[in-house]
Amino acid sequence: MDASSIYQDTLPLSSDALLARLDDWGLAYRYYEHPPLRTVEDSKAIEDQLMVPGENALRIKNLYLRDKKKRNYLVTLEQDREIDLKALGGALGVGNLSFGSADRLLENLGIRPGAVSPMAMITGVPQGVRFFMDRAAQQAEVIYMHPLVNDRTIAMARGDLLTFLDRIGCEITWLD
């Protein structure tokens, strides 16, 4: 199965249910549908269709990582930020990191590869996943991310994203 909305009903929480919850909580977002985006390069190919001119927006990439002690991490970074996993492990104080498998991604974040997003912390928090976010997000007005599937994108004001994360009990560790 791919990470598109066609298979959202096989996830612990569907994209539709997540969006309904955001609506119920009064958290605003702009919603876009598009072909499945699997990589930063895929996203860059369509971002002009989504972006609002003059908007101070953060476009992100997300890494699902594990350490040797089998602890799980979601790391959200500005999409063009270079990353060295060894240096990142040291910065996080967790040692060596590696990418988590597709099965563990589904188990711990409730999503499939290609749909990794801060929104997945709604499943990740109860699973003990730790969340790290690029400090660049603190300067952005709007953050673009997938709502648990990779053929949809939402643009959410930073304050609403932070409210969402607080509402689900997600602590953020900011990365410089």
Number of domains: 1
Approximately how much helix is present in the residues? 25-40%
The count of strands amounts to 8
Regarding CATH, which class? Alpha Beta
What would you call the shape? globular
Query: Given the helix and strand composition, which structural class is it?
Result: alpha/beta
CATH topology: YbaK protein
Oligomer: single chain
* Rg for CA atoms: 15 Å
Mean pLDDT: 93
Order of helices and strands: HEHEEHEHHEEEHE
Largest sheet: 8 strands, mixed
CATH architecture: Alpha-Beta Complex
CATH superfamily: YbaK/aminoacyl-tRNA synthetase-associated domain
- Low-pLDDT stretches are none
Calculate the terminal CA-CA distance, rounded to whole Å.
35 Å
Task: Write up what this structure looks like.
- This protein is an alpha/beta fold and 176 residues long.
- It has a single domain (5-174), classed as YbaK protein.
- Helices cover 29% and strands 25% of the residues.
- The protein has 6 helices and 8 strands.
- It has helices spanning 15-24, 40-50, 85-92, 102-109, 121-124, 158-167, and strands at 30-33, 57-67, 72-78, 97-99, 130-134, 142-145, 152-157, 172-175.
- Strands 1, 2, 3, 4, 5, 6, 7 and 8 form an 8-stranded mixed sheet that branches.
- It starts with 14 loop residues before the first helix and ends with a strand.
- Residues 34-164 form the YbaK/aminoacyl-tRNA synthetase-associated domain.
- InterPro entries: ProX/PRXD1 (IPR040285), YbaK/aa-tRNA-synt-asso_dom_sf (IPR036754), YbaK/aa-tRNA-synth-assoc-dom (IPR007214).
- One of its GO terms (molecular function) is aminoacyl-tRNA ligase activity.
- Pfam families: tRNA_edit.
